């Protein structure tokens, strides 16, 4: 894929942070002193000194509901090279998942993060699987070096709202 077409893909995609329903965000197995807010919230996630850290083992289960239906295009998960996330499974519209049943469902997509991803290169998702997303569950299954604690510096979700996409579609039709 050329650099131009990669840029074209991203042009209409926005940071979906404004559409997160913060009252419903949950993270299982987080260290309360290093919670999910550190990786997700504006300002916090830009601070390199703040991390989301796992508690009892390396796994994290993050539930993010949205205030409106979104289309998810890509995800950026930043973390340290050694104890940053490795296998990340994404589930669209799966409510009330726990560690006990996370393997009962096939993920909408799975990303194995590379050192480039951990430094800030987004992972392009299977877009067709994320067309009408009301909530996203992110299961961080393991980390780069198999340590007990996984650290996540930043999570950014890129996509569009369904309403925005429809308006652009209508506008394009009128242009012809």
- Given as residue ranges, the uncertain stretches (5+ residues, pLDDT < 50) are 1-9
* CATH architecture title: Sandwich
Count of the domains: 1
Strand proportion:
25-35%
Please tell me the overall pLDDT. 90
Number of separate strands: 10
The percent of residues in helical segments reads: 10-25%
Query: Count the helices. How many?
Result: 4
Please report the distance between the alpha carbons of the first and last residues.
28 Å
Q: What is the third-level CATH name, the topology? A: Jelly Rolls
Dominant shape: globular
> What is the CATH first-level class name?
Mainly Beta
The CATH homologous superfamily corresponds to: PITH domain
Q: What structural category do the secondary elements indicate?
A: alpha+beta
Note the main sheet.
Answer: 8 strands, antiparallel
Give the ordered list of helices and strands.
Answer: HEEHEEEEHEEEEH
Radius of gyration: 16 Å
InterPro entries: Galactose-bd-like_sf (IPR008979), PITH1-like (IPR045099), PITH_dom (IPR010400), PITH_dom_sf (IPR037047)
Protein name: Thioredoxin
GO cellular component, one term: cytoplasm
Family: Belongs to the PITHD1 family.
């Amino acid at each position: 894929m050329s650099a131009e077409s990669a840029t074209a893909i991203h042009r209409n995609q926005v940071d979906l942070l404004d559409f997160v329903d913060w009252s419903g965000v949950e993270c299982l197995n987080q260290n309360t002193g290093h919670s999910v807010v550190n990786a997700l919230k504006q300002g916090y996630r830009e601070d390199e000194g703040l991390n989301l850290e796992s508690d009892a083992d390396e796994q994290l289960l993050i539930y993010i509901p949205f205030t409106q239906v979104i289309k998810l295009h890509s995800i950026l998960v930043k973390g340290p090279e050694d104890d940053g996330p490795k296998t990340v499974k994404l589930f669209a519209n799966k409510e009330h998942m726990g560690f006990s049943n996370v393997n009962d469902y096939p993920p909408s997509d799975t990303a194995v993060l590379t050192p480039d991803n951990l430094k800030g290169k987004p992972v392009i998702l299977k877009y067709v699987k994320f067309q009408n997303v009301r909530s996203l569950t992110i299961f961080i299954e393991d980390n780069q070096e198999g340590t007990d604690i996984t650290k996540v510096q930043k999570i950014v979700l890129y996509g569009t709202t369904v309403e925005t996409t429809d308006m652009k579609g209508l506008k394009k039709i009128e242009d012809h």
